[in-house]
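in:
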């Protein structure tokens, strides 16, 4: 570093000495250029200092023409919600006074779930109270001007991630429908499937199992069990499992489990084809495995890309006039519902 600095100084002395050998008019021009460059650097430094530190957190700005929708994950902190419009944000405001109100009345930083900065920025902690939030700002643009007042409205919605799982259906040739062998086989199958997916913190749950008599094409009747089961990912934290990076992601683990189950049924077909022994009484019927991806929302929440285009894949709290009584994905209409998150009409 000393050599670099020394080299810089030597270069400067060489430039000065070289300038001394130039004609007077060229020396004057060179000095003007160096002076302008120096001023430009100083101006840039002053601008950077005035810009202050950069924050990565999201900031929401309001509007006086329409309520701004804000989506906050349930039981998480909200982004910074400003008591300003884009127009006011670019002005100097004299003696501004901010007042926030929520669904339950006035908001104050005395409440541990609310944080309001001196400049009127609101942060809602552990958010769970959806509804209309308003901020009034009283200010002057000049010291001699009368006070101006502006009211900014926000619609703040709680949302949660949907519960995802795969739903499988498979058919097995079965023993007579009243046979206890079918029940024993069902239990054994569920145990095997759960062991397959346990390493990925997933679980298999039986949705329904039905035995039917099926008339075969150009043949007689045979007994078949129609299995329907779900494969869902568990909460790793609750089950004391260690995970790293993408391996901890619920959808990643769920896809791993899906592939294991698909391979398990494929192997049953391969074993049957290679075996010279007669088929057992209960066996998987090739080609009957089917799968669908299912999204579910908690009661009181639903998905609606038309109403909530900024959060189309979120389970957003049902607004007044709607409700969701069960683990569906839609908020149903209910004119008598006056609350956010209604679970009954």
């Amino acid at each position: 570093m000393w050599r670099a600095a020394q080299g810089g100084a030597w270069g400067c002395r060489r430039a000065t000495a070289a300038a001394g050998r130039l004609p007077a008019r060229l020396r004057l021009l060179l000095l003007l250029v160096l002076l302008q460059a120096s001023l430009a650097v100083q101006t840039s430094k002053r601008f950077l200092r005035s810009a202050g530190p950069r924050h990565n957190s999201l900031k929401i700005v309001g509007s006086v023409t329409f309520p701004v929708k804000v989506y906050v994950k349930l039981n998480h902190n909200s982004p910074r919600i400003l008591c300003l419009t884009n127009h006011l944000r670019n002005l100097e405001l004299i003696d501004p006074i901010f007042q926030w109100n929520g669904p339950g009345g006035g908001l104050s930083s005395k409440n541990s779930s609310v944080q309001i900065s001196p400049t009127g920025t609101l942060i809602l902690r552990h958010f769970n109270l959806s509804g209309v939030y308003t901020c009034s700002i009283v200010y002057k643009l000049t010291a001699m001007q009368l006070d101006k007042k502006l009211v900014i409205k926000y619609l703040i919605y709680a949302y949660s991630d949907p519960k995802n799982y795969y739903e499988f259906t498979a058919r097995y040739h079965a023993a007579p429908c009243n046979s206890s062998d079918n029940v024993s086989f069902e239990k054994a199958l569920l145990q095997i499937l759960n062991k397959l997916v346990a390493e990925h913190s997933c679980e298999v749950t039986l949705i329904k199992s039905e035995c039917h008599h099926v008339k075969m094409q150009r043949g007689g009747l045979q007994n078949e069990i129609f299995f329907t089961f779900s494969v869902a990912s568990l909460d790793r934290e609750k089950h004391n499992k260690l995970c790293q990076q993408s391996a901890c992601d619920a959808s990643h683990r769920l896809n791993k489990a899906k592939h294991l189950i698909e391979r398990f049924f494929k192997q049953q077909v391969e074993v049957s084809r290679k075996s010279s022994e007669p088929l057992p009484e209960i066996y998987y019927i090739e080609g009957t495995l089917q799968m669908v991806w299912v999204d579910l929302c908690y009661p009181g929440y639903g998905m609606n890309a038309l109403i909530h285009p900024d959060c189309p894949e979120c389970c957003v709290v049902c607004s007044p006039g709607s409700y969701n009584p069960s683990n569906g994905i839609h908020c149903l209409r209910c004119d008598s519902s006056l609350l956010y998150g209604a679970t009954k009409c």
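note: Helices lie at 2-20, 24-51, 86-89, 180-197, 250-274.
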